[in-house]
Amino acid sequence: MTFHILTAELIQECSTFNKGRTGLEEYRVEILETGDAAIAKRRLGRSELKGFLDIADAEGWRVTHALSATATPGPIVTREAFEELARIITDAAEAHKHDINGILLAMHGAMGAEGFEDPEGELLTRLRKIVGPDLPIAITLDLHSNTTPEMAAAANVAVSYKTYPHVDHVETAAHAASLLKEMMAGRVKGRTLRLKLPMLDEANGGRSDVAPTMAYYSRAIAFETEPGILAVSVNSGFADADILEAGPSVLVSYNCHVAGAATRAAEIAQKLGQSMWNDRESCVNNFLSVPQTVAFIRDFKPAGPGPLVISDFSDNPGAGAYGDATNLLAGMLDMGLSNAAFGPMIDADAAAALNGAAVGETVTLAVGGKNDPRYGGGPLMLTGEIRHLSQDGILVGDGPVIGGITFRFGQTAVFRVNGIDILIVTERGQAYDLQQFKAFGITPETLSVLGLKSQQHFRAAFEPISAEVIVCDCGALASPDYVSRDYAKVRRPIWPLDEIEGMPELCMG
Which keywords, in A-to-Z order, does the entry hold (predicted)? Predict the structure, then answer.
């Protein structure tokens, strides 16, 4: 039998602490396409849609692709934008509800929208109302998802990434598609169980390159080999969203046709959840202040080739921070470094002003710190030389995270100040691919010091070429100092905001 499936991608992570809003234009920067146009752009890169299509093509399925919409993490989505994106997907489901055999939907799991703390759960609920209770729905999630009861109730199968840096988009989607195949054939009846922890974040933010966190994913993969266990997803949560369901969770999708699978799924969730709770203070990152970072740079004696790479952790655009904090850059500039680079600094005004001049000119202008100087520092008045200009900032990634995917920074400039090449860009985006610098004349491998606005994704491409990596908390919007934030909507009590005596009761549902 030839199956007909509906596919869609709607992916964004939203910080409720960012005072801006995400509209359709922010999606267009990455991708906002429907049907064959979306397939043409996404099937060759490391995307979820490629994973869906790899299985669909191998099985000879007919595919109706509704939408591919992805945006760089940022502020919550406008109500108008969410309704339009959701409408495209639900209209496709309505049009094909009598002839599709299943749905594959790639989401993030930590999206936010005006009027909806859980827009993804809302979308899934709308889809379920259209197609009825029996049509199989399989979803993929980022492991930083803030999962909700609505997501678990509407999705027969949920599969989250098991890597951070995220390098398994395709594999995660192929896993979900393979399970959809079994459900459409009637061999499997999927159901998803959810366990929620009284925590804001997993100790290491879901890093898959450090113990004990990496052990969770290894255990999850082993559990997936057991009879009746379809997918085990360990989600570290997204603490930059002040919502009721923020925080870590475990999802276990199981086969209702297998006796005892539901009981075993609950046991697995409990075991993994208990481990996350027990390890809650086992953070591997050593967060340095800006003065400590400057001192480290000054004393650094490399043991091998490559730059000292500095993560400007708390100003990560990939966590919804503004990406224009200046405290770390100011510290580096004061040192009189040479052969150094820093970026991407998101400052549309500065990028436009520099693009109005010419390569080789000396220019004085304000850089960074314009969104909210309270978080990571205000504008710096800098004089420097323009080294490179680009009107569109387009590049094609070649690393593990965005390999084969076209990325656009918009107007871009390389501005050399006191021996530091500052990559100044217009559109939001974190550092996770060497081409984000090489495309504009900066060769990371040859630098002495490189400051990157990224928390973890940079490690996939930049750690292999580094002499050493350190992590700086410059006090920007995505600071790991959760206790200093003004949370109003998260569940209480919750760690680390509250002391929780004894062993908490882990919440199923």
Answer: Hydrolase, Metal-binding, Metalloprotease, Protease
